[in-house]
């Protein structure tokens, strides 16, 4: 199942949304206009607008409110990416030079700030105060999740409970918001709002878990071996948390390796083999499947439709994706 197939029920709506979105980012400030056009020149997979529109269609009709909702979350998401690139000193985003690399950090921070304020103003301009409430809560959760992750990395005491708290706030909160405000844009049915909010939360959790698995099983195109980027960044994720819990006698040795930084290829191979042999990958994959099934079950209140099928297919796409 490809994203093109998933979006077939909303193909024309997605085109209308793209036009609406570009109109919202139009400005008379020349430098700002140049940078905003640069940002939107490569749209990526557009996963967030897609699930906003699918959620709206599942609950009723896609209207202008749905385009406002999709634009709001995409603007806020883009703002967080711009700021993330500054924090991570990233040089590339979606195959293009990042804003901080092409211009500088100061401009990138200001662009991120502008996008955050623009997202809020989109809600105010169209008097969509419920959208504003839901998305503001998501931004708060994302910030809290990021700070909790930083704090736990420094303390080296991340366990499963805190891991899930981090990924729910950092990743799942925005995907949950997409589904919820998509529903709000087309119906007043609170049961539908709740069902889609929960669907999005479960999808977001599974999405991040799959990302964390990739760090242990994805192969570098150059050397054909797992890249271990999370390990290099001293991030302890679910596969390793499980392995360390299962073999606590190895914990001190591995934590010391990660803490010292500048892991050698041999260190990365040792840790990855430890995780694999401890069953960390299989355990984590089972957890991801659990959340995918929970997400699909959240859709049980809706009658069968092309939109429901697409959201179920999207859940399976998240679980089976390879990148």
Report on this model:
This protein is an all-alpha fold and 323 residues long. The chain is 75% helix and 1% strand. About 2% of the residues have low confidence.
Write out key terms for the chains shown.
single chain; mainly alpha; two-stranded antiparallel ribbon; globular; 323 residues; 2 strands; 16 helices
Structural class: mainly alpha
Q: Compute the CA-based radius of gyration.
A: 20 Å
Task: Report the strand count.
Answer: 2
Q: Describe the main β-sheet briefly.
A: 2 strands, antiparallel
Broad shape = globular
Number of helices: 16
Q: How do the strands of the widest beta sheet line up side by side?
A: 1-2
Which stretches are poorly predicted, pLDDT < 50 over at least 5 residues? 220-225
Query: N-to-C terminal Cα separation, in Å?
Result: 14 Å
What share of the residues lie within helices? over 70%
Order of helices and strands: HHHHHEEHHHHHHHHHHH
Mean pLDDT comes to 90
Strand content: under 5%
């Amino acid at each position: 199942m490809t994203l093109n197939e998933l979006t077939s029920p909303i193909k024309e709506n997605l085109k209308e949304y793209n036009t609406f979105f570009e109109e919202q980012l139009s400005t008379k400030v020349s430098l700002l206009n140049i940078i905003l056009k640069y940002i939107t020149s490569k749209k990526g997979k557009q996963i967030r607008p897609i699930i906003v529109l699918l959620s709206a269609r599942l609950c009723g009709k896609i209207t202008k409110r749905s385009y406002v909702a999709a634009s709001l979350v995409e603007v806020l998401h883009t703002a967080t990416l711009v700021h993330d690139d500054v924090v991570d000193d990233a040089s590339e985003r979606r195959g293009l030079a990042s804003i901080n690399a092409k211009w500088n950090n100061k401009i990138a921070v200001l662009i991120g700030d502008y996008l955050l304020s623009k997202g809020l103003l989109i809600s105010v301009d169209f008097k969509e105060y419920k959208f504003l409430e839901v998305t503001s809560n998501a931004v708060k959760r994302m910030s809290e999740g990021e700070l909790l992750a930083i704090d736990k990395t420094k303390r080296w005491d991340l366990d499963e409970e805190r891991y899930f708290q981090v990924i729910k706030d950092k990743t799942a909160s925005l995907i949950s918001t997409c589904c919820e405000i998509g529903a709000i844009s087309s119906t007043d049915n609170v049961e539908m709002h709740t069902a889609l909010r929960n669907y999005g939360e479960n999808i977001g959790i599974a999405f991040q878990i799959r990302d964390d698995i990739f760090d242990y099983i994805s192969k570098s195109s150059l050397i054909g071996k797992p890249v271990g980027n999370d390990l290099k960044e001293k991030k302890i994720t679910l596969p390793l948390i499980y392995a360390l819990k299962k073999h606590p006698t190895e914990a001190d040795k591995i934590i010391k390796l990660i803490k010292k930084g500048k892991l050698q290829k041999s260190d990365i191979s040792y840790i990855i083999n430890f995780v694999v042999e401890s069953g960390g990958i299989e355990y984590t994959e089972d957890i991801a499947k659990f959340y995918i099934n929970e997400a699909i079950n959240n859709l049980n209140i809706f009658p069968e439709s092309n939109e429901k099928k697409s959201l179920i297919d999207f859940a399976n796409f998240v679980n089976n994706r390879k990148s």
